[in-house]
Design brief:
Number of strands: 6
Distance between the termini: 35 Å
Shape: globular
Largest sheet: 6 strands, mixed
CATH architecture: 3-Layer(aba) Sandwich
Radius of gyration: 15 Å
Number of helices: 6
CATH topology: Rossmann fold
């Protein structure tokens, strides 16, 4: 059994407040939301063994916040440039297999529309509304990462901050 956790980066400052898109930073709400999602994953015992992230600042900030919650050293976050620039399902699957090795659970932190498209393609579910910090957990009944393909996953959970905030109120 392999588990893929796909995360859209947390809430960021607008492009008008940043030097460029790549350097956009998380808002205060983004920091809170990333911690909330990480805490929820911990509560559901869905903690990744490996974190892969886009190198864009907002994605790395999200990955670092979550890594801290999971007690994963920041130095172990793997930056993959194509996650910022756009990629195919096959490219992502190959990269996961290379980085994850024999680990069972991988988190990928990236951007829309690619993260939502990966969730749709892997699990076949409707993830057209994939807000910031949204997280799709997809399980695969395979023994090797090289065996994951389109349509072979099953959605174990889909969660986003507004949903969790609604449960607390």
């Amino acid at each position: 059994m392999k588990r893929l956790i796909l995360v859209r980066h947390a809430k960021t400052e607008p492009l008008t407040d940043a030097e460029n898109d790549f350097s956009r930073q998380l808002k205060r709400r983004g920091h809170k939301d990333a911690r909330m999602i990480a805490d929820h994953l911990i509560g559901k015992t869905m903690v990744p063994d490996v974190i892969i992230s886009s190198p864009a600042h907002r994605a790395l900030q999200t990955a670092r916040i979550m890594a801290g919650s999971f007690s994963i050293p920041e130095s172990e976050i793997k930056e993959v440039p194509f996650i910022y620039n756009g990629f195919s399902l096959e490219e992502l699957a190959k990269e996961i297999a290379t980085i994850a090795g024999d680990k069972d659970s991988v988190m990928v932190v990236g951007h829309n529309p690619d993260i939502a498209l990966m969730a749709i393609q892997f699990a076949g579910d409707n993830f057209f509304n994939f807000p910031t910090s949204a997280t799709a957990v997809i399980g695969f009944t395979v023994s090797e990462w090289s065996q994951i393909k389109a349509g072979t996953g099953r959605t174990e959970m889909f969660v986003f901050p507004k949903e969790l905030k609604g449960k607390k109120e």
